[in-house]
Amino acid sequence: MTRSSCWGSLVVALALVAGAPGCGDSEEESGGGTTAGDGESSSGGETAGGDLARPPGSQQPGDEGWDGDSSGGGGAAAGGGAAAGGGAAAGGGGAPVTPESLWGSPEAESGRPLPPRQPMNSSAQSRFNEGIGAAQRGDGEAARQAFEAAMAADPNAYRAAYNLGVLADRAGNQARALEYYQRALRIVPDFERAAEGVVTVHIRRGHVPDAVSFIAPLASQWERNLHLQALHAEVLVHANRLDDAVEAARRALRRDERFVPAMVALVKASLKQGRLELAEAVLTQALGIEDNNAELHYLRGTMLIGEDGRLRDALGELQRAVTLRPDYAEARVALGIQLMAGGNYTAALEQFQVSAQLAPTLVEVHLNLGDAYRATQQWAKAKASFDQALRMRSDLAQAHYNMGLMYMSAGQAFPGLTQLAALQRSVEELTTYRNMMGPRLPREHPVVGYLEDLQRQIEREQRRLEREQAAAAREAERGAREGADSGGGGG
């Protein structure tokens, strides 16, 4: 039994070149930036397409938007992708690859057959289609009701369960999302998209060991599902088990040397290992197979950022990723950071605003959104975004740094604050940042200079206010004397 499926793998956060100070800056560096549905056919006869976009914060491209259109790139594209059941896919671009020379000897077709994926009944399919239509219109509540009706009409409608998980995820209800993803997996135990949803939630929560514990036995049990093998490799990269990640990716590539998700995992592992030439070679090969894969262009863009004179090319790659996959939140964040660096604050703000809708539970999104509001002098919105980031992560020193810059820039223009109060707030936030960073603070970090300059500004402002108060007191005293003299003369 062979199934083909389009699926994209999790993106490992790459170091991005910084923009303006405070624009999602790395907490260890002074001005470094932080970053921050697929068509499927089976022997079960299910309708191709129909799943919603990837879960928020999954930080990867998918193969379709709300309508199941697989033209958006990402994952294994038809004609260049790989079958989940093993065997090289026919067609596709790029020169033939000899697996023995790159990935090792090909593996025999081993492992248990994959479980069937049965189509939902006609009543459930009708409600499911209504849900897709509502999602296309942006009506999340109507979509939720329709998918729940599909589940009621057919308890085995695993796609509806998955889509309910995505909706819950985008609403910020991770616990509910996990319930739906697990429900989909109980129906189809190797459903890679639901597995990806579970892994995504664990990683966003910072629970990488939980992600490893979840995906490792699943990948072992269903070794013919190459998507699960690639997902396992991605999670191992997150866990910094890089040699294991490389081996997991190669296992998938020994079954299908053109399987792009496994190539993506290998690129990320190689980047973390510092093997830049290997990463570039594999990335180029993958693009030759599947040039419309949004994640590949995202990776190429982030790699180009670090090369002198290639910023324009990097921006072009990141924009291509967003064009291919409009719901690719991480690509939008990366693009926004570079737009901020170039001073295009309005365009950057648009990217972060969309990212916040796509991935509301990603703290990096709110941190960068706040900084874009700061750059466009929308002070109250900037403060709200930084506060949201701190509610999500109370130990986020960078939010205090960015708020310090915000108060310093806004001054008395900040709603409800005087110039002196704004300067004092800036000192409080920057001091908090410095204390939270402790020995991690680089010796040449600008926060030291900012605090010294702010102290001088505060002293000048206090002297100015004292002079004004003294002048006002003298004026009041003069007025009182003149009033008394005038009254005495009248007597």
CA radius of gyration is: 27 Å
Any idea what the CATH superfamily of the largest domain is called?
A: Tetratricopeptide repeat domain
Q: What's the number of structural domains?
A: 2
| CATH topology (fold) name of the largest domain | Serine Threonine Protein Phosphatase 5, Tetratricopeptide repeat
Second rung of CATH, namely the architecture of the largest domain: Alpha Horseshoe
CATH class placement of the largest domain: Mainly Alpha
Strand order of the largest sheet: 1-2
Helices, by number, come to 20
Explain what the structure shows:
This protein has helices spanning 99-102, 122-136, 140-153, 158-170, 174-187, 192-204, 208-221, 226-238, 242-255, 260-272, 276-289, 294-305, 311-324, 329-341, 345-358, 363-375, 379-392, 397-410, 419-437, 447-490; strands at residues 4-5, 40-41. By secondary structure, it is an all-alpha fold. It folds into two domains: 4-117 and 188-375, Serine Threonine Protein Phosphatase 5, Tetratricopeptide repeat (Alpha Horseshoe), CATH 1.25.40; 394-482. A two-stranded antiparallel sheet has the order 1-2. Helix 8 (226-238) runs antiparallel to helix 9. The termini are far apart.
